[in-house]
Write a structure and sequence with these properties.
By secondary structure, the chain is of the alpha+beta class. The protein has a domain of 123 residues: Coagulation Factor XIII, Chain A, domain 1, CATH 2.70.50.60. The chain is 22% helix and 34% strand. It contains nine helices and 22 strands. Strands 10, 13, 16, 17, 20, 21 and 22 form a seven-stranded mixed β-sheet that branches. Helix 5 packs antiparallel against helix 6 and helix 8 runs antiparallel to helix 9. The N and C termini lie far apart (56 Å).
């Protein structure tokens, strides 16, 4: 429970790096600015909930997590945590680079609350999860950053905690290890653990979180369903504040505009399609400023708001070419429609070169497609597959 929490930092105009400087300039101005990192923040996270916290840099996300962890004291309000808490805020802090992985595992496990006996009993599980069996006697200063993160994470998850605080600590891990970590989070959630997750990755918020909260300059903008929070985050991040009474439809500065979008199958435009038929997603973009390798992307959501498919030219590492003012780009994405029966909403986007975060135009739920099938299995997708039953 977070109840009316506020936290302020003082930023001095003059900084001293040595005692000599302070002694030489005893009367130099000691004025400072005030930074209100959190202002009257209240939210209740339920037991067993996967709760996301999102916001732009400087919005107060990490400050809130550090207040929850007890690293910072709050200036006003109160925080209540039911059960034991484990912060995944800065993995690797406390690891000694001059000690081996073997020694670091025991020392850090004890520091995180395990007994020496528990640390020894769980040692093999820790090393196995980190996949570092061949590097036990190597000093940590010879580890790569990814290896050190794997080791620190593996130790941290062995702590018998009820609440986990995660502050994008997995961003430096490789994709396979990130997926392994998220699978571990699901296991912890199934065991009734509570997870509070700070991130800039809206796809992760929609995929993993039960609810989410958007912060802006220390204030709560909104708390609610992950997809709605992700849309609100995009609106703020691209310079258009979300008003609760207005449904967001478009994001970006329109230096390139999405003119239209449609679905095709076997060369014909369609609004409905049989499950498994070939599908092409098509949209056109008009360019009003010179662009080099813009990023084109789409996402498909079902009627429940779940993202079932998303792709981007950046993820595929495609160079899209040069576009002059007045050019039109037509983008086609081909796939087979092995989605569960439902109505699917298409959101196309175009962004400047890079990771795709600098949006030129994003049109939310621009067109829809109905997928129909003889039966509904209850899954999100129904890919072709085989059964084998063998009597032995």
């Amino acid at each position: 429970m977070i109840d009316c929490v506020s936290k302020e930092f003082r930023l001095p105009h003059q900084r001293y790096s040595t005692l000599k400087e302070r002694a030489l300039h005893p009367f130099r101005s000691r004025t400072f600015d005030r930074l209100q990192a959190l202002d009257d923040v209240s939210v209740e996270v339920k037991q067993g909930e996967f709760f996301g916290i999102v916001g732009r840099n400087g919005s107060g996300k990490s400050t809130l997590l550090k207040c929850l962890a007890g690293i910072y004291e709050v200036d006003a309000g109160s925080i209540g945590v039911a059960g034991r808490l484990s912060p995944f805020i800065e993995l690797g802090v406390g690891l000694n680079p001059d000690l081996t992985a073997r020694d670091n595992v025991i020392i850090n496990a004890v520091l995180l609350g395990l007994s020496r006996r528990q640390a020894r009993e769980r040692f093999d599980d820790i090393i196995g999860f980190a996949e570092l069996e061949g590097f036990l006697d190597l000093k940590l200063k010879n580890y790569s950053s990814g290896m050190a993160v794997r080791l620190a994470f593996s130790v941290a998850i062995q702590v018998d905690a009820d609440v986990l605080l995660i502050d994008e600590v997995l961003a430096v891990g490789d994709a396979a290890f990130q997926q392994k970590c998220f699978e571990q989070f699901y296991k912890l959630k199934a065991a009734g653990k509570t997870i509070i997750f700070v991130t800039h990755d809206m796809a992760a918020v929609e995929h993993f979180c039960d609810r989410a909260m958007l912060l802006e300059r220390g204030h709560i903008v909104s708390i609610g369903e992950p997809h709605a929070i992700a849309r609100a985050y995009n609106e703020i991040n691209f310079g258009r504040l979300v008003h609760e009474s207005v449904e967001p439809e478009r994001v970006g500065d329109r230096s390139a505009e999405i003119a239209t979008a449609w679905f095709e199958s076997r060369g014909e435009r369609v609004q409905a399609l049989a499950q498994g038929d070939p599908l092409e997603i098509v949209f056109e973009v008009r360019v009003s400023e010179a662009l080099v390798d813009p990023v084109f992307a789409i996402s498909l959501r079902n009627e429940m708001g779940h993202t079932v498919f998303a792709t981007s030219t950046a993820w595929r590492e495609l160079q899209t070419g040069r576009f002059a003012v007045g050019d039109t780009a037509r983008i086609r994405i081909g796939l087979e429609s092995w989605f569960a029966p439902s109505r699917y909403l298409l959101t196309p986007s175009v962004a400047r070169a890079g990771g795709g975060a600098n949006a030129l135009d994003l049109r939310e739920d621009l067109v829809s497609l109905l997928i129909h099938a003889p039966r509904a299995t209850g899954g999100l997708v129904d890919p072709p597959h085989s059964f084998e039953v063998e009597k032995r």
